[in-house]
Amino acid sequence: MISISYFDLVKERDPAVKNNLEIILTYPGVHALWFHKVGHFLYRKNRFVIARVISQIGRFFTGIEIHPGAKIGPGLFIDHGMGVVIGETAEIGKNVLLFHGVTLGGTGKDQGKRHPTVGDNVIIGAGVKVLGPITIGNNAKVGANAVVLEDVPDGATVVGIPAEIKHIGKAEKSSL
Amino acid sequence: MISISYFDLVKERDPAVKNNLEIILTYPGVHALWFHKVGHFLYRKNRFVIARVISQIGRFFTGIEIHPGAKIGPGLFIDHGMGVVIGETAEIGKNVLLFHGVTLGGTGKDQGKRHPTVGDNVIIGAGVKVLGPITIGNNAKVGANAVVLEDVPDGATVVGIPAEIKHIGKAEKSSL
Amino acid sequence: MISISYFDLVKERDPAVKNNLEIILTYPGVHALWFHKVGHFLYRKNRFVIARVISQIGRFFTGIEIHPGAKIGPGLFIDHGMGVVIGETAEIGKNVLLFHGVTLGGTGKDQGKRHPTVGDNVIIGAGVKVLGPITIGNNAKVGANAVVLEDVPDGATVVGIPAEIKHIGKAEKSSL
Fold it and tell me: HEC string of C31-55?
């Protein structure tokens, strides 16, 4: 269920990790992805209700709510995770880092594709709400408690309510 | 426990719903209201401790904390719900929509009535904190992660920290 | 496990409390500290994995995640508590009040001491993120949903994203 490289990824993400057993036992963000694998498999077979029941069991144990329809790329790490909500039509690229309280949600204005698309290597800080069928570009960073309502360009760092660009391009690891 | 019209209301609120069974099984916001019905009944009989125990059991299963003293009108829908806190003297009107992470709380400055009064048809976005014995007017909307410390007029849309009026009156469905 | 004076402290903090039994049964913020006492004891004995397992069991029951390495002073009260995250190298002084959704976290830029130090008598509002090895001075107050990235002086009230000083010194109880 966890590949060797995923252990390495978690250790790189979280300096507090002591060993692999700790990751298996005590990372709700890892457990939530196990539930999502099962739920998403059933969702693609059109078993919608049982898929949602598994998603909600996952929410009960982890505090993380991932709709079984969401498409999640490899290397996603959800740190702490309590209060995360990921909507049905959200799409997440490779090696994304989400903190607790992040919402990839809808605005109520759209039909069909209603939730965000998140690029590769994106970092989204604690408490951030990303709303609507917008795109967060590759390598972008979103600061804590921001509310993102428009597309974010590749490599940009955005902060605030509504989120505005603070800088674009390579900088030191941003404050999340 | 759920009327036909409440099923319709949830389906209107959440485009991801597939059928009624899904609503009964997988909507923590619906389950939280069941716990609150029992807790509020006992609270009005002055059975305060047992009422609070039931409220906390509801919090454990749903992630939604509603004080048994809170007065809640018909048609409330709490979407996702993790982290919602509704205080003892809060009052909620008809057909209100709250997202996860919403607080209807106190500031520590007031006695007696310490929590907000929310009008009819109000929509409060994810992560919003409404603090103090203030009033959110009918048909008002509050944008995600806002902090509301003053009365909001009927029909207004407010955003930010502290929340300020973005516009008043009929507009397209606002971004939450 | 609870001293007489701690009952008094909770009653002073939360006007909704009716009696001591209610505090023992229905305050997740109190329960989380019991788990932390055990976890922190084991952590200091270098029993890191079991310490983290106990911390995560506490998170499951309370919605509050306190890393077993965190150093917590007497008189801490965590109100409501859902979504609170306290990091491994965080330090909290005496008689601190934290609301739900507060994060004492890291930015990813630091090694060793990575999390905040919070002074005595500090009040941190719901949804606040305090990030990095910064110091919140004694008697400071942080308004709801603020993101604190720099030191806060003694007695200051800070609000917003990023948090800025609203006033310093004795004022009426601030809006949280």
Answer: HHHHHHHHHHHHHHCCCHHHHHHHH
